[in-house]
Amino acid sequence: MPHVVLTGTVRIEDIFNTVKVVFIRNESGLLKTDTSYMSRDKTAILIESLTIEGGVKRSFFTLIGHRDDGVVVRIYPGSDVEKTVGVKSILSEIAKQLLVAFPQLIIGETNLLEYLK
After folding, report:
1. What does the DSSP assignment read for 28-92?
2. Where are the domains of the chain?
3. pLDDT tens digits, residue range 64-87?
């Protein structure tokens, strides 16, 4: 499962108030995020996400979840979506936003390092 762990101290509520919409259109297709939802206990954020690659539309939720050592950005486990380049790119774009907005965070465990450059 594609994911990025960002280690360091940050509140989910601060992430919720900071994370911006992703909108990237290029020759490969479209990457887009839309509405975000925060859990009542403020430990998780779901972000409506969409890719269009090769004319194929894929909708899923990106999850930003609290961990003892920081946060994780990954596909929401209830989303059954093919792990394409576009899907991995959305996760990485969100992680890159968090790294810029919260400089105390550092990249921990991930299988998306090539997308984070």
Report:
1. TEEEEEEEEEE-TTSSEEEEEEEEEETTEEEEEEEEEEEETTEEEEEE-TT------HHHHHHHH
2. 3-112
3. 999 999 999 999 998 899 999 999
